[in-house]
């Protein structure tokens, strides 16, 4: 489900650091986290989303998440922008 949501989103931000920055701007509708990513890497994104009451959805694979974003490498976190 979330893979399709990412693929169909008009604007996304890929990566943990960029997702945290985007969350701070207040324009993020939802964050998608790959469960096979290192929790140390995704912890800041998840915490920022929780602090700002932004929904966090999880998917099983970094590789599939990256593919949904149109990139050839895995993605640990993706922010879907308004």
Automatic annotation (TrEMBL):
Pfam family, one: Ribosomal_L7Ae
Protein name (record): RNA-binding protein AM506_18405
InterPro entries: Ribosomal_eL30-like_sf, Ribosomal_eL8/eL30/eS12/Gad45, RNA_bf_YbxF-like
Entry similarity comment: Belongs to the eukaryotic ribosomal protein eL8 family.
Keyword Phosphoprotein: no
Residues making up the signal peptide according to the UniProt record: none
Family annotation (HAMAP family): Ribosomal_eL8_Bact
The organism's place on the tree of life at top rank: Bacteria
GO cellular component: a single term: ribosome
GO MF term (any one): RNA binding
Species of provenance: Rossellomorea vietnamensis
Gene3D superfamilies the UniProt entry points to: 3.30.1330.30
Alphabetical UniProt keywords: Ribonucleoprotein, Ribosomal protein, RNA-binding
Entry annotated with the keyword RNA-binding: yes
Residue ranges of every copy of the Ribosomal protein eL8/eL30/eS12/Gadd45 domain listed in the record: 5-81
């Amino acid at each position: 489900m979330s893979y399709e949501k990412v693929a169909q989103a008009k604007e996304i931000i890929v990566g943990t650091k960029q997702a945290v920055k985007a969350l701070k701007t207040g324009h993020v509708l939802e964050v998608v986290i790959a469960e096979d990513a290192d929790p140390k890497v995704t912890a800041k994104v998840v915490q920022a989303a929780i602090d700002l009451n932004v929904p966090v959805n999880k998917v099983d694979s970094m590789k599939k998440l990256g593919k949904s974003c149109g990139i050839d490498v895995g993605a640990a976190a993706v922010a879907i922008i308004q």
